[in-house]
Design brief:
Distance between the termini: 55 Å
Shape: globular
Structural class: alpha/beta
Number of strands: 27
Radius of gyration: 30 Å
Strand order of the largest sheet: 26-25-24-23-19-22-21-20-27
Largest sheet: 9 strands, mixed
Amino acid sequence: MDLAKSSLAGKAMARPDLVRQVLRTAKRDGVRATAAKVFAKLDQPIPLGYSLAGTVLEVGRDVSGFMPGDRVACAGAAMANHAEINAVPKNLCARIPDGVSDEQASFVTLGAIALQGVRQATPTLGERFVVMGLGLIGLLTVQLLKANGCQVLGFDPNAERAELAKELGADVAVSTGFEDAVATFTRGVGADAVVLTASTKSSDPLNQAGEISRLKGRVVVVGLVGMTLERDVFYKRELDLKLSMSYGPGRHDPDYELAGHDYPLSYVRWTEQRNMEAFLQLVAEGRVTPERLVTHRFSIAEAEDAYEFMGQGKPHLAIILEYPEQPKEPIRREFQKKVAQATGGIGFVGLGNYAKAMLLPALKGLDGMTLTRVATSTGLSADNAGEKYGFASVATDPETIFEADDTDTIFIATRHDSHANYTQRALEAGKNVFVEKPLALTLEELDQVIATAEASPGLLTVGFNRRFAPMIRDAKAALNKAAGPKLMLYRVNAGEIPSDSWIQRGEGGGRIVGEVCHFVDTLAHLAGSLPIEAQAMALRDRDDAVSILLRFADGSTGTILYSSVGDPAVPKEYLEVFSAGTVVQMEDFTRLTITTGGKATTTKGNQDKGQKTMVKAFFEATRTGGSAPIPLAELVAVTEATFAIEEALRQGGTVSFATV
């Protein structure tokens, strides 16, 4: 909350890692494009909450082990939100045992965090533990250690919390005289283990934890504390220092949390879901009593009062938000915010950073443009889009847009694995469709989209914006005067994307299909011919650092050098084309040199990759009944080329592919 209220400078000071990331992106993509992305991200609302208990209303088709009517406890920031209805991945849910109240179960996330910290400390029966910091997680840690058969000393400068720790089972709890108390408690030997559950920017608690530890003791950091170590303290005792990663194994792993792939129990005994289940079982047995930590309760209708109370700094521990016993109405996946026009509106399926930073600004100001509908993955983002951009209707179900009479044009800006399906649904409904690249992730998807597009009255285009950039258009005009095939080189300093990014996973389809398609399309446009063959080789162990050779139907060739291993200080894109005495050189859409007849002409300008011109061309075509700005045959050939490149990487050699 404090970070959200801070100024832009305050946010930058709090997250220097993100500032460095922004600077790297600016060097690669340019200041203007980076600024648009940053402000779009900063404007995105963040849901509050990460721990809840409720009743299952519906289950997904791939979910087993849960049924409607089950009581469940759920975890996860941006998943287990403070909202009456939530969609939560199955591995972030645990069934509530009989005898455990919803209120007790709503502590499940805090309990899993505390339990993972205890597991990292590997307690054994009879060991003497010190817990530093007796907030919610610290007090739960005290009870969990007692359930493990340990002797526990708790410390917190707040005397009331120290007293509560005693009531919850701590053998000793103090707010003053800490080091003397530890010496007495451990008989002068030092603690077997210290669990640090405090929250402070200072490193003093961490170093103090080392000083009160025995030789070869353990220190586990659970809380957010400073991490500047005094080496002698840890070295001379040969201490084991561990950090605890939130709820447990699986945390921050999208395959586990989002895709629902569990770790085998025989290899990973305690995942975050199994930690949640274990905590709830301890509550059921009465060995942990989270209800003792509740100091205040508010109804969800008074939630703003609860946050205001927190902001006043008044003493509190757990604050419970309570909801009506039964939903007042069935689940609504669409809300009308204002009266829309009868026909001819524009709808968006998905409204991520690119759509907000590039597509919406490109539409703004176009004559006759009206935003009618938007569907996003969460109600919060949909409602924010309606408020900020003026959509008449907001929804979490894209079917409401496909079926709407007031919307004839749909922009699809979701993650890549949904593009083909949503494009097909929109075309079947007779809508004009602008789909962000790629068009499809498989040949089967592509074939279905082609068949639907050929039978639909709607126009289809893909967001291949570079061919609309002013410098590419100038290059195309110069090359049209040079007869014959072309020799082309496109070098892309793409930068590294982590392997666990959604782009690299199944939903993104990888960087060849997801981004290299841009450069294939640009070369096809400049050649004025469709690609028909592909060869490709990748660096060892880096399938996103590739050398690609394309052959085009007119005899032109194009080389794409796509690198994920370069320095971001080097501009992202460089293009060079040779054709019948003419040479075109373009540097990152800011400098274009055309050399012909011994004379070089250079044009400089601000970076413009053609997004606005592309969107305008598509919009005008939908209003005038003209042809799509990119012919379907070219969309298909470019997409097929990316599949052929991937096949060439897998099998080696040359891959030929059919074009329409």
